Amino acid sequence: MKKAFPFLLVIVAAMFAYAPVLIVGAPYESEMGLIQKIFYFHVPSWVVMFTSGTVCGVASIRYLMTGRKEADRLAQAAAELTLLFGLIGLMTGPLWARKAWGVWWQWDAKLTSALVMWLIFAAYILLRRFGGPGAEKLAAVVGIFGMANWPFVYWSVNIWRTVHPLTTVVPTLPGSMLGPLLFCIAAFLGLYLLMLVARLHLERRRADLEALFLAVED
Amino acid sequence: MSFLQTAWLVTRKDLLIEARSREILYTTLFFAVSCVLVFAFGFVREGRPLADAAAGILWIAIAFSGTLALGRAFERERQSETLRALLLAPVDRPALYVGKLLGVCLVLLAVEAAVVPLVAVMFQAPLFGHPLMLVGLLAAGTVGFAAVGTLFAAMLVRARSRDVLLPILLYPITVPVIIAGVRGTAALLEVEADLQVARMWLSMLVFFDVVFLTLALWTFEPVMTE
Amino acid sequence: MKRFLFVVLAAGLWIGPLSAQQPPPRPTGAQEGFVPVESLPNQEKLTAAPLLMTAYAVAWLAAFGYLWSIWQRLGRVEREIAAITRRVEAGSRR
After folding, report:
1. Which of A206, A207, A216 is nearest to C90 (CA)?
2. CA dihedral sign of residues A25, A28, A33, A39
3. From CA B26, how far away is CA B7, in angstroms rounded?
4. Phi, psi at A29, each rounded to 5°
5. Which of A143, B125, B179, C19 is most buried when burial is the number of CB atoms within 10 A of its CB?
6. Chains with ≥3 Cβ pairs under 8 A against C?
7. How many CB pairs under 8 A join A and C?
8. Is C40 in Cβ contact with A34 (below 8 Å)?
9. What is the pTM of this model?
10. Do B92 and C13 touch (CB under 8 A)?
11. φ/ψ of residue B11, rounded to 5
12. What is the greatest pairwise CA distance in chain B?
């Protein structure tokens, strides 16, 4: 992983440099016009957020079952990144909605369930910071419940009418739009991987520091 | 000792302690009443309630007072250090969880028994039109809320900032319970009560209860061990 | 016990989807699919641009901000590690 890091960095940087070219080249959408181009960053950030949430949930299960510190570190890093990419999604979404639907926010299934997921992982981070010693296991439970909870939130809100584009949009996308979208998703996933590796490295160095402190005390 | 016997012993202990002081019951009850009152000032104008207000207010009062009851129930354990004693006992850990859960549910149901007529009166809501369905919704919702709440409150007993962390953790995760409870109750309160919709929300609540009870039973043991 | 829980969970997982069948809601506003078009109708051009730019700015700032914060935190930790290692070496040389 460490050796691949600079290589991955160059690739992701190149992808992000090229992405605007692809986005500008993609055709406009007939009903929404220019504002629809937010789609190319909005959808990938949500894809990454849910990926990261799942990673956190799975790592939490692993930590709870085996007690391995590495799993705990992964869960923590993934939770932070869930918040980050969720924040990008939550901010780009209303900016798009303001133009496309006329309102900043709508209480439909996707928005609400995404917001609730974001709040759950915010709670995870708050618990780790302010819960005192031993909060790692508690946070792991929150991560697991958060991951399990999403279908329920989505389903319960979905019974009401929904204004958000249905998930059928992506499979029926014409090639001229699908291409840039997939490229951006790949770029975002690459960025996510980079950030995850960097964050894990930070956490491992912190653990090394702790160990050094303890050794010096003796 | 069997699982159910252990659970019942824990519940019985909680109920006995509660019966002597009735502290949690009274404080939670009056908190719920104040909640309803505050919302009354917000949502009732010139004697006419807003549509759907009654259902929402009922469930918000349950959620808020439930959080308080959970906090108090485990604060009691923490102060007497009885939780450690319970954990040291050679019994099934999940049975302890079920015992505490039952106790919390009973307190909450007692509170609801008082708050439901209050909301019906203050908001002129025909809550008793379909009593069985209402009881079903309240029971399923309370169990769901308490299932997650008991686990988190037990987890947080030794954590710092536990008072504020419990609602922060609990509310996002119990959002489906609140949504289903409110929408189900609102369906019952319509001019022509929509029983089919209410039944659908009830089955969703039951589904949620099953999944989250199972998850809680599974995670209780690993999370309460050091 | 665990097996019992699994059975209950599996059974419960069936109740959910079976009990909540709903007709799909009627879509409005480009929900069925995106329809591509080559050039913009005139009235759409202006007001969307600032929102679009803000959206992309948000994404870039958030990503860079986070990477920068990791960089800062890592620097701090590395400096502390270096300081302690120096102290340990100074102590052991004596």
Report:
1. A216
2. negative
3. 24
4. -90, 135
5. A143
6. A, B
7. 143
8. yes
9. 0.81
10. no
11. -60, -45
12. 60
pLDDT tens, residue by residue, A112-132: 888 888 999 999 999 998 888
Contact C44, A172 (CB under 8 A): no
Contact A27, C37 (CB under 8 A): yes
Please tell me the distance from the alpha carbon of residue B37 to that of residue A32, in angstroms, as a whole number. 46
Q: Which of B225, B146, B220 is nearest to B181 (CA)?
A: B146
Question: How many other C-beta atoms are found inside a 10 Å radius of the C-beta of residue C91?
Answer: 9
CB contact (8 A) between residue A144 and residue B152: no
The DSSP call for residue B49 is: E
Q: Which residue of A has its CA nearest to B184?
A: A156
- Please report the ipTM that was assigned to this predicted complex: 0.82
Of B152, B211, B222, the CB nearest to A64: B222
pLDDT range class, residue A67, cuts 50, 70, 90: confident
The answer to whether C12 contacts chain B (CB < 8 Å) is yes
Closest CA to A143 of A45, A218, A72: A72
Quickly list H helices, chain B. 3-21, 23-43, 53-79, 82-88, 93-122, 131-156, 162-173, 175-189, 195-224
Bridge partners of C37, per DSSP, are A28
Which 3 state secondary structure label does DSSP give C4?
helix
Residue type, A131: G
What subunits touch chain A, counting only 3 or more CB pairs under 8 A? B, C
Q: Give the integer Cα–Cα distance in Å for C8 and C3.
A: 9
User: A202: Cβ–Cβ under 8 A, 6 or more apart, which residues?
Assistant: C70, C73, C74, C77
- Work out the angle at residue C4's Cα, subtended by the Cα atoms of residues B226 and C8, and round it to the nearest 5 degrees: 110
Q: Which of C34, C77, C87 sits opposite A206 (nearest CB)?
A: C77
Tell me which chain C residues have a C-beta less than 8 angstroms from the C-beta of A184.
none
CA dihedral for B200, B206, B210, B216, sign (positive or negative) = positive
> Considering only CB atoms, which chain B residues are within 8 Å of A135?
159
The upper half-sphere exposure of residue B148, i.e. CA atoms within 13 Å in the direction of its Cβ, equals 33
For chain A, the farthest-separated pair of C-alpha atoms sits apart, in whole angstroms, at 70
Is some CB atom of chain A closer than 8 A to the CB atom of B90? no
Query: Which pLDDT tens digit goes with each residue over B132-183?
Result: 899 999 999 999 999 999 999 998 888 887 888 999 999 999 988 998 999 8
The per-residue pLDDT for range A180-202, each reduced to its tens digit, is 888 889 989 999 999 999 999 99
Could you tell me which residues come within 8 angstroms of residue A68 by beta carbon, excluding any fewer than 6 positions away?
A62
